[in-house]
Amino acid sequence: MFFNNLGILGVAIFAILSAMIINNIVFGGINYMAAFGQSGGGENIVNGTPDVAENGDKKLAIITFDDGKKGQIQYAKRILDNYDYPATFSIICNNVSLSDHLDWHDIQQLERDGYDLASHSMSHTELEDIPMDIANYEISESKKCLLDNGVRDVRVFTYPKNGGSDNPAILKEVAKHYDMARTANDPLTFVKCGLTNSSLQDEKIDCTSFGENEEYGKYSIIGWSHDSEREDNGYNDEQMLQRFIDVVESQSGYNDGEEIGAIPIIIYHDIDTTSGFYTTSFELFKAEMKYLKDNGFIVISLLDLI
Ligand SMILES: [Zn+2]
Question: 238: burial class by Cβ within 10 Å (0-12, 13-18, 19+)?
Fold first, then answer.
C-alpha cells in the first residue's frame, strides 16, 4: 500500500527516512550526527536551529486512530480508501463490540483492507495508576486478545491516556511485546529526538531524556491529539481545519529537500456526522485529508518508521 502510493520519488524519500531512523533508533539509538551529516554531539539533548524551510521540501504525515470507535469504519475508512492513505487503528480489547465501538468483524475487515491494528490496552486505564503486575497484564494480554480474535499482526502499542511512556518499567514491558509504541502530545515528532518528545523553546529542539533507557526511544514516539487540541481550545470545524493546517505545515521548518527532520503523527478518535467530544465530523476529516492530498503530503504508516 505504501509503495503503491509513492512512486519512485516517494520510495527514495522513504529510503532516506528509513536510513535516518535506522541510524537513530534501530541500530544504536543516539547517532543523530550520522543522520544529519554534522559533527560532534551524541548527547540525548540536541539544541540547534532548525533548517530553514525551502520551496520543494518534502512533507510527510502519519494518521492514527485511537479507542476503536465505530465511526472510524463507518465514516473515516471510505476517505482513507479513496486516497489510499495508510492508517493505524488502536483497539481497547475490552471495549470491542460495545455500543459505538468497532466489532471483531470491523477490525478484521480493516486489517484485510491493508490497515494496521495496534493495541491500546485491555481497559484504557492509565498504566502508571495501577500496580505493575496489572499494567503488565494490560500491555501483554491486549496483544494476545487481538491475536486470539483473528488479527494477524499486532506490532504497535499505544499508551492509554498517554501515560507510562516515561516510566522505565512500563517501557521495558512494552518493548518485550511490541516493535514500537506511540504516546502523545506534541504537534511534531523529531527525527533528531529518535521520534520522541519534541517541544520547541526559543527555536531549539528539546528532546526527552531517557537516561539509561534511551534505547527505548521507539517505544515513546510522540503523536499529536487532534481532538484534545479542539477540546482545550473550543475550536469549531473551521478553526480546527486551520489549526490542522498549521500543525502539518509546521514541519517545513525542519525538513530540507528530501531530508526529513520532523513529522506530524495525527491522532483521531471518533468520526461522526458532527464534531463533538473527541469526535471529528466527517466533513472536517474529509477536508483535512483533501488538504494533505492537494498540498503534496506523503502519508506513510507508523510502521514505516521502523
Ligand atoms: Zn485512548
Answer: exposed
Residues 6+ apart with CB under 8 A from 138: 121, 122, 123, 125, 127, 130, 160
Task: Using the mean position of ligand 1's atoms as its centre, give its distance from the Cα of residue 116 in Å.
Answer: 16
- Are the C-beta atoms of residues 220 and 213 closer than 8 Å to each other? no
Task: Give, as residue ranges, everything with CB less than 5 Å from ion ligand 1.
Answer: 66-67
- The Cα–Cα gap between 191 and 186 comes to 14
Grid look-up 514491558 returns 173
Give residue 210 CA to ligand 1 midpoint distance, Å. 24
176-193 tens-digit pLDDT: 999 999 999 889 988 777
Structural domains in the chain, sorted by start:
2-305 (3.20.20.370)
CA–centroid distance, 10 to ligand 1, in Å, is 31
Q: For 22-48, how does the pLDDT look when each residue is reduced to its tens digit (9 = 90+)? A: 333 332 222 222 222 222 222 222 333
Q: pTM for this structure? A: 0.80
